[in-house]
Design brief:
Largest sheet: 7 strands, mixed
Number of helices: 10
Oligomer: single chain
Order of helices and strands: HEEHHEHEHEEHHHEHEEH
Strand order of the largest sheet: 5-4-3-6-7-9-8
Number of strands: 9
CATH topology: Rossmann fold
Radius of gyration: 19 Å
Length: about 300
């Protein structure tokens, strides 16, 4: 975990259940005499992550349908912390405005980014219903002045139709769909549940997720390269474009494509979370002079 993470130690279930009563019924003592939950149970996972938001990030309302993706708070906060490091090294610590591509019903990156670093956000999504749910979360937490939502009406586009000519973002964040199809998502879920020790024949995603949240034609590589190309069409409207990249083999092709598209900067930010290693890829099209002018302005 990032050095600034609030989740480097084991969960304080006494505190968490005190702040979110619904978690209590899911907590039990395992064979090692430690309190825990069944991480293969989507209800338990959602209750835990809701409690984490309530307890550590002052998010008092976080409700969305059980079918929607429930993001793991520690790893999502890690992305925010690593992005903050990148912005700090770039001297971009004040008046930070972030574009969240695929904000989802949970609105998680805007909630965390505003709570931890006081950033403002614009969140986009293809699913209008998800945006309605996210807007309710925003309103209930009195964040309507710092988080704006926009509907992406064309499934084939990412930035086109979202960015206005006057928009200027310090950074973008994106957690793209990993799977090419629902069948691929199902296979991955079976493998994950087996690793969690679930012996049931019933396959249920412990973090849930709708097809729009999990799948994209061509999978992660296709959406990433679409994103790269569209970012080159708006090169001066965002200092740092970034994305989570699940498959490390995609990083090399991203770097090659961005070189052809005229990117001036390319960075890979490794994130270590327990035994899991993931990464954020960041790129920019700004020249050194444009970077300096951005900072001055």
């Amino acid at each position: 975990m990032h050095k600034n993470s609030l989740h480097t130690n084991s969960y304080d279930f006494e505190l968490l259940t005190k702040n979110h009563e619904a978690l209590k019924s899911h907590v039990f003592v395992n064979d090692y005499q430690n309190q825990t939950i069944d991480f293969s149970n989507p209800e338990a996972v959602k209750a835990l992550n809701t409690a984490l938001l309530y307890t550590h990030y002052d998010v008092k309302f976080w409700e969305f349908p059980d079918k929607n993706l429930c993001p793991p708070i520690p790893s999502r906060a890690d992305y925010i912390h690593h992005l903050a490091d990148l912005l700090r090294r770039s001297h971009l610590e004040s008046d930070v405005k972030v574009l969240d591509i695929g904000v989802g019903a949970s609105c998680i990156y805007p909630l965390l980014g505003n709570s931890i670093y006081n950033w403002s956000f614009v969140g986009s999504d293809i699913d209008e219903k998800s945006l309605q749910i996210a807007q309710k979360i925003i309103d209930k937490n009195n964040l309507e002045n710092v988080i704006e939502l926009r509907h992406q009406r064309d499934y084939q586009h990412i930035l086109k139709g979202i960015l206005n000519p006057s928009d200027k973002f310090t950074a973008s964040v994106c957690n793209p769909p990993f799977f090419k199809s629902q069948a691929d998502a199902l296979d991955a879920t079976k493998t994950k549940l087996k690793g969690l020790g679930n012996k049931s024949d019933k396959v249920i995603r412990n973090f849930s997720g709708t097809p729009k949240e999990l799948c994209y034609a061509g999978g992660e590589k296709a959406i990433l390269h679409n994103y790269l190309y569209e970012s080159s069409q708006f090169p001066k409207q965002c200092y740092w474009f970034t994305s989570l990249v699940s498959n490390v083999s995609h990083v090399r092709s991203m770097e090659a494509s961005l070189k052809k598209l005229g990117a001036t900067e390319f960075r890979v930010l490794d994130m270590i979370q327990g035994n899991k290693v993931s990464r954020v890829v960041a790129w920019s099209f700004l020249t050194e002079k444009e970077q300096n002018n951005w900072i001055k302005n």
